[in-house]
Amino acid sequence: MSASGGLTLVRRAVEAVRRMPRWQKRLVVLTVGVGSLTYACQDNQVLQINDGTGKKKVVIVGTGWAGASFLRNIDTSLYDVHVVSPRNYFTFTPLLPSVTCGTVEARSIVEPIRNIVRKRGGAFRFWEAECYKIDPTNKTIHCRSGNGTNIDGNGEFVVDYDYLVVTVGARPNTFNTPGVAENCHFLKEVEDAQKIRKSVMKCFERASLPNLTEEERKKNLHFVIIGGGPTGVEFAAELHDFVDEDLAKLYPDVKKYVNISVIEAGDHILTMFDKRITQFAEDKFKRTGIDLKTNFKVVKVSDKAITMTNPATGEIAVPYGMAVWSTGIGTRPIIMDFMKQIGQANRRVLATDEWLRVHGCDDVYALGDCATITQRKVMEDVAAIFRVADKDNSGTLTVKKIKNVLGDIYERYPQVELYLKTNQMKDFHDLLKDSDGNAIKESKELDIEEFKKALARVDSQVKMLPATAQVASQEGTYLAKCFNRMKYCEENPEGPLRIRGTGRHRFKPFRYKHLGQFAPLGGEQTAAQLPGDWIHVGHSTQWLWYSVYASKQFSWRTRMLVVSDWGRRFIFGRDSSSL
């Protein structure tokens, strides 16, 4: 057949499709040799795609810390893996404040999702689209792409799943404060950091224009950060260094008008850190000229001024040039809609169990900022375990039996073991420890009720996991390992004993291991709080911060880019262009 004949045949086929009634317009693509079938239609029927091997389909929604860590560790030879996300890359979010001031370039902290799997030799499918609805009843998700690829051009499609892993993260929480969304910058995505960088430079360029009054220059160069958490504090420190080390030399006429303010509704900044770090950070900000306003609540933001209240001063309005809102996270619309469907409407985030399974629906897992592990009341399970152990209903158990019971409790609730080592329970813990190998002490009878009363306070000691990259990353890695071992653990369960049922759980529950936290404070000084109550602030800790953040990059490519950016900044300074 000639080339012109082939083209004619294609044109005829296209015309035939166009003349079909709306309900009949379908596109079927058969890929020979792979065994995959793609079936889609314009009226949002389910997109059924499989690789012909009969493997279970795992759909991951989101490419943040949890989603990328799961994808990085899942064995793609065991599952048919699909990823849906509006962004085809992973962002190393802890370095976003550095991007705002040109210390690190934006492309240095992003890793394409396809690169993550390609390096492991895995096969998966990725769709750059936003998931706007989850249907747990039909086990499908509804997606929308901005590219407009279907016949109607709206880019909507539906994907079915066997297992769904929800890692959509969270959005900035404005607390419904008027004017925040319209007039403030956020710092959650790479695009946010790039916008802030442009805005900073525009403020300096506006302040340098002729015929401006002194008040107008002060207004343009007043940078306000609302929120005294790690992100807000780090950005304030980065901005101060940018101004002091680079922009002051480039804009000598207006540098005296620069003012950086941090507004915090509470009594102190960095409240999640040790008090020693909080005090050092506040003292350092005062020494370097950063205006720290605590106990101020922002009630309104206009395009010209920020209105806030304080018990001592009342309501005041402060003019500003640029404002960054960094006060916490809120729930995404897709999660709010999903929670209504499964009976969690009154919650802020999705509730999961210790195995990251969403309460109220099967085969759906949620990780990262969009979910939290519901801490089961320890005493409810402890009471059930003791009832089983006390077969004769005597109300007492020997020390030996209690030790056996505690072994099961420790496996499920490590916080109980930690609690028994505290001052309140130290005598009881020492009694159990001293009885090892001593038959007489192990045969001693103890009152169960007294023991349960002593443990009653353990529930109040349990804290929710923080919404941090560290938690999300560990959750993604944990769940991927569970999926990789699912078949083995079905036959050889390795989890704790079921309290309400027989046998054991398939997997050990998720346990978060806190590896420490950093708070860069500017001037090549960083505060570090590491396990074991190790607190340190200074220049040496800054180099530890460099080492840790470089090692945590997802690839050698980004690792080399970030390190080279730091070296370039040391030699040439930060880039002040408005790109």
Automatic annotation (TrEMBL):
One of its GO terms (molecular function) is calcium ion binding. Keywords: Calcium, FAD, Flavoprotein, Membrane, Metal-binding, Mitochondrion, Mitochondrion inner membrane, NAD, NADP, Oxidoreductase, Peroxisome, Transit peptide. It is an enzyme of class 1 (oxidoreductase). InterPro entries: EF-hand-dom_pair, EF_hand_dom, FAD/NAD-bd_sf, FAD/NAD-binding_dom, NDH-2, NDH2-like_C. Its main location: mitochondrion. It catalyses: a quinone + NADH + H(+) = a quinol + NAD(+); a ubiquinone + NADH + H(+) = a ubiquinol + NAD(+). It holds the Pfam family NDH2_C. It comes from the Eukaryota. Residues 377-412 form the EF-hand domain. Its EC number is 1.6.5.9. Gene3D superfamilies: 3.50.50.100. GO terms for cellular component: mitochondrial inner membrane; peroxisome. It is a peripheral membrane protein. It is found in: Mitochondrion inner membrane; Peroxisome. PANTHER family: NADH DEHYDROGENASE (PTHR43706), NADH:UBIQUINONE REDUCTASE (NON-ELECTROGENIC) (PTHR43706:SF23). Belongs to the NADH dehydrogenase family. This is NADH:ubiquinone reductase (non-electrogenic).
